[in-house]
Amino acid sequence: MAKVLIENLYKIYPGEKGRPEKVAVDNANFEIQDREFMVLVGPSGCGKTTTLRMVAGLEEITRGAIYIDGKKINEIPPKDRDIAMVFQNYALYPHMSVFRNMAFGLELRGVPKNEIRHRVDAAAKTLGLLEPDNLLERKPKALSGGQRQRVALGRAIVRNPKAFLFDEPLSNLDAKMRVETRTEISKLHRKLNSTMIYVTHDQTEAMTMADRIVVMRYGKIQQIAAPLELYHQPANLFVAGFIGSPPMNFFTGTLTASRQGTLDFIEKVPAGQTPFRYPLSAETSRRLSSRQDREVILGLRPEHLHPKSLTSGVTLEATVEVVEPMGAETFVYLRTGGHTCICRTTQIEFMDLEGKKLNLGPDLSRAVFFDPQTEAAIPV
User: Fold this and answer.
1) Are residues 158 and 9 in the same domain?
2) pLDDT tens digits, residue range 78-111?
3) What whole-number distance in Å separates Cα of residue 199 and Cα of residue 169?
4) CA–CA separation, 222 and 230 (whole Å)
């Protein structure tokens, strides 16, 4: 397996017909440890796939360097980088059987036939291509989407590469198959104990599969961290809103001194609306004292907005707009004086509350505060 180092990496496309150049990847720097499962996540156009393609050698590097096991690979052809890539559209040869699709790369490298048979059979067994039905002699058109993706995985596995690269491999699968294949890839990582770089726009895939996640936006890296660190300690507003489903709630307001010597958060609302006012703890007030009388953005996860029956003390009042029963939990969409928000709860007695008032108790011990100008998280 291998350690991969991305150092000061840029990809800049020249402008056409007088248009400015396009910076697709802007000074990316990160290291993928040996046997680590690293996920690159972000919205379309953020540069994640371009970064992966530069690692694979399918995209020319404008500036910067990529190292695999300490060896600079910028000028090394893709076929000599000892990596395997799994594509979104499977990229199988339609006229070849499953066996030939998996074996073809080894045949081109002159691997002995008995070794090819051994590797393909081992990979097919690992991926469930032999039982309950032996799929090795079938053509791709006779396979389901999930089976085709397993064949593409098998083609990568038989090469025994230093690193696996995945370019949104689950995008073409239905919801149920995505969950199943996601689990299979995670199991495969543990079994192969290999280095994997995985690109997706789906933050659920990133959260459930990664050892660490690289969040990208407009070609720039926003934050690199373990999944739960991203969830609970986002570096900025974008990461906070992108990671998590439903997303984090944001309330703009001002920190004002209270009679008790602590700070209160007062919601910013349009004229004629009533803001909610919520006291901060003494410790949080001390840490945010430099922000007194200044505007901040309060971030709260949906599960940290509790219905009144589950909390005590000060509450805020909101109007219920939509209730979405999800089975084990319920999403309640509400409106305060100046903001919309989502409450995630296991209580089920909200079905008849649409249009009515509901008292909520925010758990501000779990809150994240952001600077409205820089959008960066404020250390608390």
Assistant:
1) yes
2) 989 999 999 888 889 999 999 999 999 899 889 9
3) 8
4) 11
